[in-house]
Specification:
4 copies of one chain form a homotetramer. Chain A is an alpha+beta fold. Chain A has 2 helices and 6 strands.
Chain lengths: 123, 123, 123, 123
């Protein structure tokens, strides 16, 4: 949900820029809120759901898709779980403002050794 | 789950102390992992479930009960959610080691202005 | 520092939009990484410095200014510290890409009951 | 600092157990607060200092020693920093209650593939 009450603070950027701005905030927030959370095959669905529902609350966010992939986790520990890392995340955040829609993506690129956040598409 | 492989690192404390130790770790972990997460009435169930399932993965943890109470949240923002705070949490963590069971609790006490973590019971 | 190697992922947005995008990521990251950290008058300088130096590492970030204000902290607890909250933060993030500079700001607005993130200025 | 005001909540455990309990909370807190923070050789001192000073505020904590070792970091990314992981941490927390002192340690053990938290010594 976007609020009408904050519009005066955003007069110096376009609706397209606002949609990009809000998607980016939510992507940075998601990473730094949840990295380090213990996760296993048995708990992964509940963590994906909580990440999705909490991040969809942020301003101007329409939808969040969360996929946690254990293929990049480096293998489990002696206690059969791992700490969530950026390498394991594939995320889409859909944000919109005044009819402009941005899709922000995070996924790990081996050539960068980095979970890159970028704009996948924007109207 | 406790691992048999780490027992050599715990020879200087008793099973009762180990149960207390593991419950306390999980309580500190829980607080600092999830504080700040956006939450609303609509998303609270999924967040409680993810906290429970992720924290039950930690060593020697049998069960985690999570209750998020908006009564101490200070009211919602313009965007109809709040950031999770310690005041909103009522948590029980059940840990055990070699047959000794500890129940660790966190809840907000107004007289301390603090979400206190303490041992509610231990065998 | 911006990397040259990731440019191919950003062909669908302008340099101005990239500067806004990177500032917003860092602001969301900062909030959700550090909210909940114990802080007191005696420790505040080291926390401000660590937030600044860690967030300046993020892609395309030139400078981060951090001010933690206890005036909005709701008072200390029985243990003489508080958990860092969004209300206490006043942050500026300066990002740039190909000569375009964006200043992103977060500060608490009482009318929104919210630590608002917005673009303060952009070339 | 320990508070006198919370003593009534700790009547069912011994001073030795309280010292262990408080050390464990702080270790769990430290891990889950700071994992994911961007860090490089240039910023490591400020992050170590902030972790130390913030965690020394917690109840009954006398001292915290923090060493961040890049040897276990898996190498930097394209942007010349890494996200802090448990593998990189070597931590000592000294807690005490009514004259009993506990030293809690976290460090990575390859045989467990895990940053183990344990009690290194206790009076």
């Amino acid at each position: 949900m976007c609020s009408g009450k904050d519009e005066k603070y955003f007069k110096n950027i376009s609706p397209r820029e606002r949609a990009i701005f809000e998607g980016a905030i939510t992507m940075g927030a998601l990473f730094h809120q949840f990295i380090g959370t213990p996760v296993s095959e048995s708990s992964v669905k509940s963590l994906e759901q909580a990440i999705k529902e909490s991040m969809e609350l942020q301003p101007c966010i329409d939808a969040v898709e969360v996929n946690i992939d254990f293929g990049n986790s480096g293998g489990g520990n002696e206690y059969e779980y791992v700490s969530l890392t950026g390498e394991m995340l594939d995320i889409k955040v859909v944000s919109s403002y005044q009819g402009v829609r941005a899709v922000t993506r995070m996924r790990y690129y081996e050539e960068l050794n980095y979970p890159l956040m970028y704009v996948e598409s924007v109207d």
